[in-house]
Specification:
mainly alpha, two-stranded antiparallel ribbon
Length: 217
């Protein structure tokens, strides 16, 4: 899955960025843009299928989902580097996701998230393999969900700050004003990544992981 994702990006960059990828973005045909959004949604369905097939326990299924997501994300960058020598460094800016709006950030940030997800997944799966029932407590779910929301805010904050000057949130997540939104996005250049927001989300994850580990010991 990681290689397929990398291959799609290689094709898109050959079409739109033959001289090499860089911000600002080039406008994409509406059909291709919609196809790309659906492809990302389909990727999430494939990852979710791993969780559904792996276990009937919700917590273990979630663990396998985030493990598969993390491995996919890390090797996506590995294959891109092997294929086209990109990214040049861990601080190279990238478009991370497009749903519901554009996520941007240095490559290092999603790699850190992925390593954290692998740690959490390994902890839950290890306990399940001992045939022990593991249920995440309410506070642990809250920490993990809050950490996820905060992390997403960190990835989308710069783009949203730029776009909400001229558009509503509804405009950004619908195709109602596609041409106008794409025209504005085509001159958007990421200026700032909120590392403190990102670190806060990571802290929530690590507190949840530490709590789970202490409880199961």
């Amino acid at each position: 899955m990681a290689f397929l994702e990398s291959a799609v990006v290689v094709y898109l960059r050959a079409l739109y960025y033959p001289e090499g990828f860089a911000f600002p973005l080039k406008e994409m045909d509406s059909t291709l843009a919609l196809t790309e959004l659906i492809r990302e949604a389909a990727t999430m369905v494939m990852l979710a299928s791993v969780a559904v097939l792996s276990s009937r326990k919700v917590s273990v299924g979630v663990a396998w989902f985030i493990y598969a997501f993390a491995i996919w994300d890390i090797f996506y960058y590995v294959f891109l580097w092997l294929l086209i020598g990109w990214p040049q460094s861990f601080f190279t800016w990238d478009i991370l996701f497009l749903l519901p709006v554009m996520w941007t950030g240095p490559v290092l940030a999603p790699v850190i998230n992925s390593l954290t997800m692998i740690l959490l997944a390994a902890l839950i799966v290890r306990v399940s393999e001992r045939h022990e029932m593991i249920r995440l407590k309410g506070v642990e779910w809250i920490l993990l969900i809050a950490g996820s929301v905060i992390t997403i805010i960190g990835y989308t904050e710069d783009y949203m700050h730029y776009m909400l000057r001229d558009f509503s949130f509804t405009d950004l997540v619908s195709f109602r004003h596609y041409n106008e939104v794409m025209a504005a996005s085509s001159v958007y250049v990421p200026q700032h990544f909120s590392w403190w927001i990102f670190a806060t989300g990571e802290l929530f994850f690590l507190v949840a992981i530490a709590g789970i580990r202490r409880r199961i010991r």
